[in-house]
Amino acid sequence: MINDSLPIHLQIEPCQICNLNCLACSIRNVHKGKDRCVLSKEEFEVLLTHAPSVKDISLHGLGEPFYNNDLSKIAILLNKKGIVAKTVTNGNVVNPNIDNKVMLENMKEICFSIDGDNKNTYETIRRGGDFDKFKEVVSSFSETRAKSNPKTCLLSFNCVISEKNIEYVSGLPELAKELGIDKLKFNIMGQFFYSKSDSNYKMVEEIRCHDESSFLLLMKMLRNECDKLGIEMSYPPIEEKKYFDCFWPIRAAFVTAEGYVTPCNYRMNPEVINFGNLLTQTLDEIWFSKEYLIFRDSFKKSKYYDFCLTCS
Ligand SMILES: C[S@@+](CC[C@H](N)C(=O)[O-])C[C@H]1O[C@@H](n2cnc3c(N)ncnc32)[C@H](O)[C@@H]1O
Ligand code: SF4
Ligand code: SF4
Known about the structure:
It is a single chain. The protein is α/β, with parallel strands linked by helices. It has helices at residues 27-30, 41-50, 71-80, 100-106, 119-125, 131-147, 172-178, 199-207, 212-229, 248-251, 283-287, 290-300, 306-309, and strands spanning 9-12, 56-59, 84-89, 109-113, 154-161, 183-188, 232-234, 252-255, 261-262. It has a nine-stranded mixed β-sheet with strand order 7-6-5-4-3-2-1-8-9. The longest helix has 18 residues, at 212-229. One iron/sulfur cluster binds next to loops. One iron/sulfur cluster binds at residues 18, 20-22, 25, 27, 62-64, 90.
């Protein structure tokens, strides 16, 4: 059921710079050949002023959040305003301008992306990443957190399952335990590329996990292992995409580091579609713009945009 009340959740892209070029990530298409933006704390303040209804923010997009020198200042700002914030990082960046203790004190969750339980698998998928450095970065967060009580910030792993790693993730519960991680989140590789003629689209279709029973069997085994080690675990239902279930047009929106508002974290290219700019317009103006109303209407009428039909 689509309603038109203002969204309470935004995913805001703090930084478009990245040191990795992961196999299934559309960063190489979306930010190709353009200057990559980084949101300053001052710009972030403007975004928040323009979106007073928002209570929950995910601080990540196409790029590595820890290249944003203002990240810990932004975390403080969000906490002061009572906004629940989380971020996702590739765990391969140590930025002297970011205070990890401040991040831990002000964020609800810091999630580290890990797509394999060993160096070879990890570095094959997370191209340009260094598994040993990743482990050091994760440990430095959990050690800093261990010194500061109480344990308010959840530390998690996100693992995107595909044919490339389905046989190389069984060691993740053990690794999570060793590195002080509280929760292991498994996700299924989605289609970040929207055009069927794009070779990246075809490559992702080839390596996406199509075998439901192997996936569920693996999840069952991993859940047993996580239970034994006292680690939380989650995974999504594996089923055909039901467009009418998509929560984005109902209660969330994506904001690029330039301020453009786009439909979701699958379709983040403002050149393909955007509904306005949150640095210069209010969320109210954007959410009720003619273009956004027509987009939400496409869900009410089950006449989905082409880029929705290729998202899965
Ligand atoms: C786009 S990244 C941005 C944050 C940071 N650069 C990182 O990699 O953690 C956010 C998350 O999206 C995941 N991701 C990338 N491509 C994906 C895909 N095709 N399907 C599902 N998740 C994907 C990454 O593994 C990561 O956990
Ligand atoms: S998934 Fe994250 S680390 Fe990998 S290329 Fe995309 S933005 Fe960079
Ligand atoms: S592309 Fe469309 S259907 Fe897919 S997640 Fe985004 S808004 Fe939902």
